Every structure is written in C-alpha cells, then in structure tokens.
Amino acid sequence: MARVMAIDYGKKxxxxxxxxxxxxxASGLTxxxxxxxxxxxxxxxxxxxxxxxxxxxxxxxxxxxxxATPLVEECVRILxxxxxxxxxxxxxxxxxxxxxxxSMIDSGLKKKDRQxxxxxxxxxxxIILQEYLQNKI
Length: 137
What we know:
alpha/beta
C-alpha cells in the first residue's frame, strides 16, 4: 500500500505528516518553508509512493471560509497541477492548532519548545491525518 500525506498549509510554513505504508499510523514528517513545498514534495514522491494528499481547510466556527481559505485553495490548485496522479482531499482543520498546542503541553514539552511554530504545524498536520484515518474506517 501507499502512504497518505497530510498538509497543514500556511503562508510562511507548512507542516507535513504521513502514514505508514499500511495506513495505520499517522506521524509527523517535517515542516518546510511554504515556498519550498513543491520541490520538497517532488523529492519525497520520487522516493515514496503516496496514494492521496489530505489538506486542512480553514474554516470559521460557523463553517464559513477564513482569510486563509484562498491560500489553501491556491495550494490545492498547484498540488493538482504538479501531481495530477495524486488525489487531493480537503478536510476541516478547525481547532487543530489548538489541539496541537495542547498535545505539546500534555506531553510535557517545555515552554521554549512549545514556542516552535514549525512543530505546532507538524503536529497539526498529524492531527488532520489522524482524523482523516479515523473517519475513513
């Protein structure tokens, strides 16, 4: 089986997470500067088989689009253009950053480590992927 990748897209940084080849476990992969996302994915996809890309879709509490929604829509367009063989699916990402920060606290990370925004993005991508896997079953 191939992996599934999740993306927590941001204007400056993008968090990435992937499943194992059996698609049982979601793990944080890395955080990349957003302007380096496509070159990074090209290298990654050359080395690993990826079945689908899951991207977090930002929404307000009422379900409407946020100021970040157009950025994610543009990213989806670019992903589909560069990787037409890999389906891109959008999933609701409400609360993932808060959940990621809380998981950092719960795991005992020091305050200085919790200020690492890249780590928050990577954990957010992992949460998006875990939720996708749970809902897929």
